[in-house]
Amino acid sequence: MGREIHSVAVIGGGTMGSGIAAAAAAAGWRVLLLERDREATRRARERTLAQARDADEQQAIDRLLVTGTLDESLREIGEFDWICEAIVEDLDAKRALFSRIEPWRREGSVVSTNTSGIPLRAITEGLPDRLGRDIVVTHFFNPVRVMKLLEIVPGNDTDPAVVASLSRFCGDVLGKGVVQAKDTVNFIANRIGCFWMLSGLHHAHRFRNQGIGIERADALLSAPLGLPATGLYGLIDLIGLDVMALVGRNLAANLPEGDAGLAFTRFPAEEAGLLARGQLGRKSGGGFYRVLKGADGQKSREVFDLETQLWRPHAPASLAPHQTDAAGLLFADDPDGAFAWAVHGGTLLYAADLLPAIADDIVNVDRALRWGFGWKRGPFETLDDLGPTRVIARLRAEGRPLPALLRLLEQTGGESFYRDQGRTHLGLDGRYHTVEA
Ligand code: NAI
């Protein structure tokens, strides 16, 4: 069956839907955007036009974008190749919408649901078999026009041609870095990235009395490890403590039994306090950091001292020469090294224990963290940089079990997850396979 995509119908023009609609129209494709009522439709159109990168793009979007309400224009989706649902994160609302869509959708069209955490099987259960064959989850990252990562998650019954054509369209036309994930809680990037953040808060809490305050933690958990300059606290300020609390609750409810992430789903006391008094991050005017503008117009940065519970001037942390690269920092026998090893090393080991549950290969995992969280090197690439044999020796010395992928590497006698300058990777069958573009 031909599954080529030449037009897109987006349903729900909020943060994500407007970004997807803008990206598709800006790339020159016909876009239909449907909303609940006329007022919501007007706002969705405005939001979509506002995402143009320049005046030319805005004109292109204006020309190619048709908007309407579900009640008046639903039948028009029969003309479109990709039906992309991006309404609220509510299972019943999504299911009700799909039953409305099914009769109007043409044979061969592909369907996607944008969700951060609802299992695909819960959405399609009891709906026509055709939907189960034609649908995937598309997990775009916010803001859609900026973030490279798109996780595509097929269900048990999804036709592989649907995954192939959506991956092609989103990769070639929308410029996304497409990763194939499995239908498990938080998919790939957020499963590992949120473990890093939530476990990071707990380890930082433990190490605070060893001289690792907010600035030092962020200096360690950024450039030396090839991570974005926001570090740990800066990143959580950006996301918001309220969102992180929701993520933690969702993980507590849905992580499989025995998962290492279950130890970190609740905040340490200090962060729980910040959340309770609405000190959420950038959106509330400050979280761990805040920027103040003086009477003279000069900006100054402050840090919320978690020990004294008071704001104070930001004092940048300076790092020692050995702390400028991952191996130097993580293998150092000092509190900084122990802290960074607990957070980042712990996350690498967590990732190395999640296959095949969350992905079919390590390449998808490395790309997800690079494209979704801005890591310069994904977890397995970082393990290669550190030297897997050295990591294994350390775990043995610490009396800790080896995660599944390090066990596999050891059994196969390999010394690295990637070989041939990154052109081949260790597969779950213990053999090395070509890294597909
Ligand atoms: P949003 O609240 O900004 O937008 C939802 C839009 O859908 C609104 O414009 C609303 O009028 C419309 N809508 C709501 N119920 C509807 C219905 N029954 N029929 C038609 N339209 C309806 O939400 P957002 O942030 O765009 O999220 C959309 C989906 O994408 C959610 O499932 C969310 O979990 C997921 N997502 C969101 C991310 C984010 O950072 N905002 C990141 C990744 C996924």
Assign an overall shape: globular
User: Sheet with the most strands?
Assistant: 8 strands, mixed
Residue windows where pLDDT falls under 50 for at least 5 positions: none
Q: State the end-to-end distance.
A: 25 Å
β-strand number: 14
- Which fold name corresponds to the CATH topology of the largest domain? Rossmann fold
Q: What structural class should be given to the helix and strand makeup? A: alpha/beta
- Biggest sheet, strands in spatial order? 3-2-1-4-5-6-7-8
Please identify, by name, the CATH architecture of the largest domain. 3-Layer(aba) Sandwich
CATH class of the largest domain: Alpha Beta
* Chemical compounds bound to the protein: 1,4-dihydronicotinamide adenine dinucleotide
Q: Write out the CATH superfamily name of the largest domain.
A: NAD(P)-binding Rossmann-like Domain
Helix content: 40-55%
**Domain module count:** 3
Beta-sheet strand percentage? 5-15%
Average pLDDT metric: 96
Layout of helices and strands:
Blueprint (H helix, E strand, L loop, with lengths): L6 E5 L3 H12 L3 E6 L2 H12 L5 H10 E5 H4 L8 E4 L5 H11 L8 E4 L6 H5 L4 H6 E6 L8 E6 L5 H14 L3 E4 L8 H19 L6 H7 L12 H7 L1 H14 L14 H8 L12 E5 L5 E7 L4 E4 L12 H5 L4 H17 L10 H12 L5 H8 L1 H10 L6 H9 L5 E2 L4 E3 L5 E3 L3
Parallel strand pairs: 1-2, 1-4, 2-3, 4-5, 5-6, 7-8
Antiparallel strand pairs: 6-7, 9-10, 10-11, 12-13, 13-14
Helix pairs in contact: 1-2, 1-3, 9-15, 9-16, 15-17
The structure holds 1,4-dihydronicotinamide adenine dinucleotide.
